[in-house]
Amino acid sequence: MRDEIDQVLISRTQIADRVAAVADRIVADLSTSAVTIPAIGNGVGELTLVPILTGSIIFVADLIRHLPLRMQLNMISVNSYPGTRTTTTGTPQIGELTNLPDSLVGRHVLVIDDILDSGKTMRLVIDQLRSRHPESLRSAVLLRKDRPQAAAVPIDYVCFDIPDEFVVGYGLDYNGYYRNHPEIVTLLPHIIEEDVT
Ligand code: 5GP
Ligand code: MG
Questions:
Q1: Kindly report the CA angle at 90 between 87 and 93, in degrees rounded to 5?
Q2: Does the beta carbon of 111 sit less than 6 angstroms from any atom of ligand 1?
Q3: Could you check whether the bond before residue 54 is cis, i.e. omega within 30 degrees of 0?
């Protein structure tokens, strides 16, 4: 994998430090809400994290270990239309959302994605979650690209702003590969040149 990497944009330690700092902010913000009250059994006042599969898995796994709060995880999927895939030219066409909870009444919800690019995914998911009437709804992304479309979507917690380049690693893939790479990197042009038109 090493010989396929062009640039390391964000190192392991930079990621670890920033994820911990963002987690502290999330805890501080939630502490003014009722999330720390003892459970009364129906989820009211509790925290529900809604990570968007698959790219957010490593971010979420690291983030939640810095959140000493009673919580549930409700992973959701945003299915791309058949025949599309993660390419360097960006987002597949967004299809149907799966595994959304029926009701979020009374819950504090934090929706989490890997990267904000066109912002379409987050907009769609936030709209769908809001229609389920959570007590509060916040959003977090690991990365936000330097694009007007991304800046137009308000996100509560952004770990890193990055240039408008195709990146992989720390959960992000290229055609299903590189998710296990521990840094955020760009790939050498010859690795991705099949997509450049
Ligand atoms: P958006 O809906 O904001 O355009 O797209 C978000 C989704 O597109 C991300 O969850 C991710 O799956 C994919 N994506 C956008 N930019 C990149 C990128 O630079 N690298 C990778 N690996 N995926 C990306
Ligand atoms: Mg994604």
A1: 95
A2: no
A3: yes
Ligand 1 center to 151 CA (angstroms): 14
Q: Where are the domains of the chain?
A: 12-166
Residue 119 CB less than 6 A away from ligand 1: yes
Q: In testing the pocket of ligand 1, which one of 50, 86, 170, 195 has its CB within 8 Å of the most ligand atoms?
A: 86
Ligand 1: which of 5, 60, 91 to mutate, most ligand atoms within 8 Å of CB? 91
The pLDDT score that the predictor gives to residue 93 is 64
DSSP 60-98: HHHHHTT--S-EEE--EEEEEPTT---BTTBPPPEEEEE
Contact 172, 153 (CB under 8 A): no
Q: Which of 77, 82, 116, 79 is nearest to 100 (CA)?
A: 77
Consecutive 10-residue runs of the chain (197 residues): their mean pLDDT?
A: 93 98 95 59 81 97 95 90 59 76 92 97 95 96 98 98 97 96 97 69
**What distances in angstroms separate CA 27 from CA 15, 19, 30, 192, one per listed residue?**
18, 12, 5, 39
173 catalytic? Reply is no
Does the beta carbon of 90 lie inside 6 Å of ligand 1? yes
Tokens of 21: 């700092």
Q: What CATH class does 12-166 carry?
A: alpha beta
CA–CA separation, 163 and 9 (whole Å): 9
